[in-house]
Amino acid sequence: MSAQAPSAVILIRAERFTPNPATAADxxxxxxxxxxxxxxxxxxxxxxxxxxxxAALRDAGVRVHVFADEDxxxxxxxxxxxxxxxxxxxxxxxxxxxxxxxxxxxxxxxLEMLKxxxxxxxxxxxxxxxxxxxFLEGTGAMVLDHVSRVAYTAxxxxxxxxxxxxxxTDFNYEPMAFxxxxxxxxPVYHTNxxxxxxxxVAMIALEMIPDEVRREQVRExxxxxxxxxxxxxxxxxxxxxxxxxxxxxxTPEGKRRYIMAxxxxxxxxxxxxxxxxxxxxxxIVDVDIPTIELAGGSVRCMIAGVHLxxxxxxxxxxxxxxxxxxNEDNPVTPDGRNIANFD
Length: 343
What we know:
This protein has one domain: 5-stranded Propeller (L-arginine/glycine Amidinotransferase, Chain A), CATH 3.75.10.10. It has helices at residues 39-59, 108-117, 138-141, 161-171, 212-223, 234-237, 264-269, 272-278, 290-293, 299-302, 314-329; strands spanning 8-14, 63-69, 84-87, 91-94, 122-125, 142-145, 150-154, 174-178, 195-197, 201-204, 228-231, 245-250, 256-263, 283-287, 304-306. The chain is α/β, with parallel strands linked by helices and 343 residues long. It has a three-stranded mixed sheet with strand order 2-1-15. The protein has a three-stranded mixed sheet with strand order 3-4-5, with no helix packed on it. It is built from eleven helices and 15 strands. GO terms for molecular function: transferase activity. This is Amidinotransferase. InterPro entries: Amdntrnsf_FN0238. Keywords: Transferase.
């Protein structure tokens, strides 16, 4: 398993989709639903886009867990990365959400699947901070470098620094907070729209960090282990170029492959030289999701990565024990072949 790029993901297949009016005030990336289109039409297109993403990831050899959402009161449930993150060693975090109508996106069935299919040692739940007006919206608010253990975080009312530091203490990350604003001085609502950290490449809009000293500190920290930094422009950020995620898939032959998943809109915004740097370590997999992007998030927001060790299925464990028993009772040739008669 790659420390940075998970080989399994969780997607939520929301039957009812619409941009959330409760988040429009501070999410400058949200768009308006085209005039004359019904909620049924919008939802149908969004479902097709969700299914296309799931299919593209599976085709790339990524394990995809899809959960249906039939609740029509959860407009943003397609973005599970805001309430859930998983971590190597068996830890899961559950987060406090800013918009009250998003808080019931948290699902026990997702957590139960993780506990049954993966090795989960602990679940740390920060959602009890919501009544105090304290929020940290998961890997939307934080962009995590799992290799160097750094949590890059743009300050906003969706990313409280006190709970960031608490998370970093609990999960052994170094907090690296900074201010990030657009050309009009509006704070960036989620860090993951301006930054993506992969194993050997990172993409970030450093020009949106107004403090020049802090900007250079972020650049240096990202590149300290030889990672290449692709600098994005604000125009590219508005095309969701920063809202990408590195995943670890498999070829049909079983060979490991790294992919950078993003939207087709984001891919079209990248310059050839930027694409060349990314493709030195990752294959770009892009999916067209214009309807979902109306809600102010893109491919990264749709994916909750699974960084947990998988449990061995019972039948596989029994087979392994049987083979081990056979090997104990039968001699092998010098080249390691068992010479038991299986006829």
